[in-house]
Every structure is written in C-alpha cells, then in structure tokens.
Amino acid sequence: MTPAPTVPLVCYQILAAILFTIGVVGVLVRRSALIIFMSIELMLNAVNLSFVAFSRQHASMDGHIFVFFVMAVAAAEVAVGLAILVAIFRNRDTANVDDVRLLRG
Amino acid sequence: MLIPAFLFAMFAGIAIGCSLGVIFHRNPVHCALLLVGVLLSVSGLFILLNASFLAALQVLVYAGAIMVLFLFVLMLLNLKGENPLLTRGAAKGFGILFAIVVFVELLWTVLSPQMEGGMAASPTVPTGFGSPAAIGRVLYTVWLYPFEITSILLLIAVIGAVVLAKRKFG
Amino acid sequence: MDTAFLIESVIKVHIVLGFVLLVVPFIVWMERKVLGHMQDRIGPERVGPFGLLQTIADGIKLFMKEDLVPAQADKVVFILAPAITVVTALIATTVIPWGDTVTLFGRTIPLHIADVNVALLFVLATTSMGVYGVVLGGWASNSKYPLLGGLRSSAQMISYELAQGISLVSVVLLAGTLSLAQIARQQAHMWYVVPQFFGFAIYVISGIAETNRAPFDLPEAETELVAGFHTEYSSMKWAFYFLGEYANMMVVSGVAITVFLGGWNGPVLPPVAWFLIKLTAFLFFFIWLRATFPRLRYDQLMAFGWKVLLPASILNLVVTAIVVAL
After folding, report:
1. Residue C227 forms part of a structural domain
2. In chain A, whose CA is at the least distance from the CA of B154?
3. How confident is the model at residue B19 (pLDDT cuts 50, 70, 90)?
4. Does C136 sit within 8 Å of B65, measured CB to CB?
C-alpha cells in the first residue's frame, strides 16, 4: 500500500482554484485570440489537477480516466481552434478578438 | 516528510508564477513557453499524487504536442504582442471582478465542512495506483464507449482542422 | 529517503553524465575516422595518435570562438534552445539500464539511475520535449533559413515520434511492462528482436529520423538551408546542439538495445561490457548509414513517415495483439 501523501489534499484543490482563476482572468482580460486559447488550456489543467487530487482522495481510478478524456478532448479542441484562428487570420490579418465583430448587433 | 512538502511548494510556485506570466506577458512566444512551464509543473504535481501514467501523458501529449502546435501557429502567423495589452476600461474591471467571484466560490466549496470531512482523511492507495495497468483495467471495461467515441472525436478534429486551414485555390 | 540511496544515486548520475560527456568526443572521432575510411580517405590523423585528440582540439577552438547573438534575436530563447536539447537528452539517459545489479557493501545496487514503472513513456516524453530545442532555436535566430530549417526539423521529429511510440508498444504487449529494467531482464533467453523484427526496423528508422541523422538530415544539411536551425549559432551553443544530437543518438541506441536487442544480456562477459559493445555497434551502424545513403528530400521524408512507417507500425501492433491474444 502506498502511504498517504504528506501534503494535505486541500492544498492541491486550493492550487487548482488559483490556477483556474488566473485562467479566467486571462480569458476575460487579454485580447489576442491565442493568449485566450492558452488561458483556456490553463483552466483545463487546473481542472485536471483537481480531478487527480480527488481521485487520490477516494482511491478511485475514475478521476484519472476523466483526466485522460479531458486531455484527448483538449487536443482536439486546440487543433480545430487553431485551424479556425489561422483561417480568420488569413482573411482579416488580425488575431485580435475585438476586431472580429461583424455579427455584433 | 519534508521533501514532498518542499517539492509541492516548488511545483506550486512555478505553476503560479508561470501562469501569471502567461496572462501578463506581451510576447506570445514567451507566453507559450511559460505555459509549457505550467504544464511541466502540473506534471510534477501528478507524480506527487501517484498518477505516474498521467504525468508522462501530460508531458507527452500536452507539453510535447499541443504546445508545439501552438508554437507552430505562432511562428507561421508571426504574431507580435498586441497593443494595448489588456481590454480597455469597464470590461477589464468586470472581468477581474468576475474572476474574484469565481475564486471565492471555489474556495468556499473546497473548504466547506462537508468537503472538510471527506478531505481530512487522506487514505492509502493500493500499489499500482495510477499505473498504466490500473488505467487500462478501467478504461477498456467500464469506460469503453467514451473511449471509442473519443477516438471518433479525434478523427473528426483532424479532418476538421485540415479542412478549415486549407488554403483555397482560385 | 535514506542516505545510502542518495549517495548511490549521486554516484550513478556522475557515472552516466561523465560517460555521456566523455564518450561524445569519442563518437565524433569515430564518425570522422569511419566516414573517412568508407569514403576511401583516412580522416583526422595528425592531432594525437590516430587523430584521437582531434575532437578535443575542436572543442578548444569552439570554446575560444566568438559567441555571436544576432542583434534582433530573442536573447533569452536563443540561449535557452540548445540547453533544452541537451537537458532533455541527458534526462532520458537516467532510465536506461546499463547493467544488471551489482553488490557493494552488502547492498544490491541496480545499474540504472531511476527505476520508473513507466520508463518507456518517460523516455518518449523527454524526447518529445527535445523538439522545443530545435523549433525555438530556429525561431529565436530571427532569420529565414533557420526558421524554415527549425520548422521542417521539428515537423519531421513529431511525425516520426508516432511510429517510434507504436513500435515500442508492440514490445510492451509482449513484455507486459513499461519498465525498461524489467524488459531487459525478461530477454535473458530470447531477444525481442526475434518476434518483433519489423518493429525493430521501424523503431530504428524512426529513431534515425528523430535524431536528424542522415539520410533524414535535410533540415540541418549544409548544402540545403545553409545549416538549418543552427545557422546563427556559433561556438559553445553550436557545440551544445551537437552534444545534444549525439546524446540523443545514444538514448535512441540505448532504448533500442534495451527493448529489442536484449539489453545487457550476453554469455561470457559482464553485463556492462555487453551493453557497451552493443552501444558501440549501434553507433557504428548510425555512422555507416550516413556514409551510405543519399539524403531524402523533405517531402519524400514526410511521405515516408506518414504513409509508410505509421501504417506499418500500426499493422505490426495489430498482428502482435492478435498473436498475443491467441
């Protein structure tokens, strides 16, 4: 049996909360589409950390499986999102989200 | 006793520092490299939590493939830092306020008494926890359908990315 | 963490690090001599007996050379890139077992620095981080040939990582473990190259492409994009790139030996000697390939990796899985 981790698992959850919040700030405050993508990746990683900590808490592998799927879906999302970004950039020569506003009322 | 706590503090410090750098740096390539730093420190935290397979997967998939994709797009589009850096005025204020609300809510949930009872006892786990064998045992039996659907999702993503980024001739 | 374990780990790290750093000049000499003889000339022979001190002389020259950083280059990333190449290659050497256990002072000491239960994944993960050294070096030089060379080289490395990983998975199916030490131990009677001959071939070819060696070295060839991603690098940073490339060659050889060629198993000599013999033979094979084959054009290279090698490795995996299940 592997003994309990010496750092209480609450610390991991608080760290995950901090990283998630920093990601939220990045998404809301930066204007470059790529940095927004990176902040989304930051949020996904915070969630992964939280899942793994909970999985360790309950000694269940289900948390690990969730993280596995989150990683796979994040890879798919990044591929498609960057392709969209490249297509937009080719048409408008800007990666600034404030400049892509034709559908705005 | 001391070494795991020191390692946790080191990885947590690197993760927070690099993530602040990601959202505040001007040069997008530096932001991407700092994000790689965050990913590597999260991988270290996974190892501290006995998730060895996920730690290797995090480096292999996230830091080694997804971020390389980011860097390729950055270099091919030759994106420089944007000017001004952050959103103007009221939107920035609302954004930070919302983030603070989210943070307080998360802390509230994590530190609440119901969670406290569950999280106070950190149990022992069987040896082989977090190993590839343990993940395989669960992935191909209980979670088989999501696994197959994820593989189709990845195929869709590949085809979609190729179609979207294709340069149309004429 | 008891002190005896710490001391033995530190000693092992010193041994492996010292070995890699000291053997790289020897490999450079061997390459120049062997290439020379295969090309019907002699190679270096004036500096020291048989030209053995040639690499040291070159090292001193590189040390004394002017260290240029291009004016518009991104200085932090420019200096970081060769460091990433070397560091990832050296980290990957920590899990390769170079011998069976030794008994000293009443302790059985396994001859690998770290016994990780996901050692094969660890090696794949660290070599995939090595892509950053190349792509960042190309970009940070702020010049068009290095950028193109860096992008081509890193695209090549990522493409061949897939075939490499899948060919290793076929062996994992046979071995039942990802730990390199266990895989080496299980080959006492039959090396895995015998059932997995195609997997071995696929792994070696993709390993050569991973390390940017001939015939897959278009991105760094001198007659092509000037010198690819390391055009703007001089003196010690350039030396670091080549140190990283040769260390990477040693890692790829080490993994191939451990997984396919029986690791340190062999009849009469001590295990470490067998490992060194196999390592030398593999490095000679790398050099032999460089002397023999013409360079592959970049589109031929990518087509080969995606359309031939990847399907072949997947087919190998499927056949292995069927045979194991029966």
Report:
1. yes
2. A76
3. very high
4. no
Residues of B at the C interface (Cβ-Cβ below 8 Å)?
Answer: 3, 27, 29-30, 33, 36, 52-53, 56-57, 59-60, 63-65, 68, 71-72, 75-76, 131-132
Name the residue ranges covered by the structural domains of chain A: 9-97
The total number of structural domains in chain C stands at 1
Does any domain span residue C131?
yes
Q: Which of A11, A48, A77, A101 to mutate to test the interface with B (most CBs of B within 10 A)?
A: A48
Calculate the average pLDDT of chain C: 87
Residues C121, B131: C-beta atoms closer than 8 Å: no
Query: What is the distance of C-alpha A25 from the center of its chain?
Result: 12
Residue B143 amino acid letter = W
Please give the model's pTM, rounded to 2 decimal places: 0.91
What's the CATH code, domain A9-97? 1.10.287.3510
Chain A and chain B share a number of CB contacts under 8 A equal to 253
pLDDT, tens only, A57-78: 888 889 999 999 999 999 999 9
pLDDT in tens, C181-224: 889 888 888 888 889 999 999 999 999 999 888 788 877 775 66
CA nearest neighbour of C127 among B63, B18, B55, B72: B63
* Ramachandran sector of residue B130 (left: φ over 0; alpha: ψ -120 to 50; beta: rest): left
Q: For residue C85, what pLDDT is reported?
A: 92
Q: How far is C124 from chain B (nearest CA, A)?
A: 7
The CA–CA distances, whole Å, from B28 to A31, A77, C104, C123, C129 equal: 12, 19, 53, 29, 19
Given a contact cutoff of 8 angstroms between Cβ atoms, the answer to whether C134 and C280 are in contact is: no
Closest CB from B23, B66, B74 relative to A74: B66
d(CA A27, CA A23): 6
Contact across the interface for B69 and A19, Cβ inside 8 Å: no
- Assign C161 a pLDDT band (cuts: 50, 70, 90): very high
Give the residue on C whose Cα is nearest the Cα of B2.
C1
Looking at the partner chain, which of B27, B29, B75 has a beta carbon nearest the beta carbon of C151?
B75
Is A28 in contact with B98 (Cβ distance < 8 A)?
yes
Name the 3-class secondary structure at C109.
Answer: strand
Range of the domain at C315: 73-325
- What distance in Å separates residue A99's CA from the closest CA in chain B? 12
Buried b or exposed e, range A67-78, using 16+ CB within 10 angstroms: bbbebbebbbbb
> If one looks up domain B1-82 in CATH, what number appears?
1.20.120.1200
ipTM score for this prediction: 0.91
The stretch B123-147 carries a mean pLDDT of 87
Contacts B33 to C, Cβ<8 Å: 77, 136
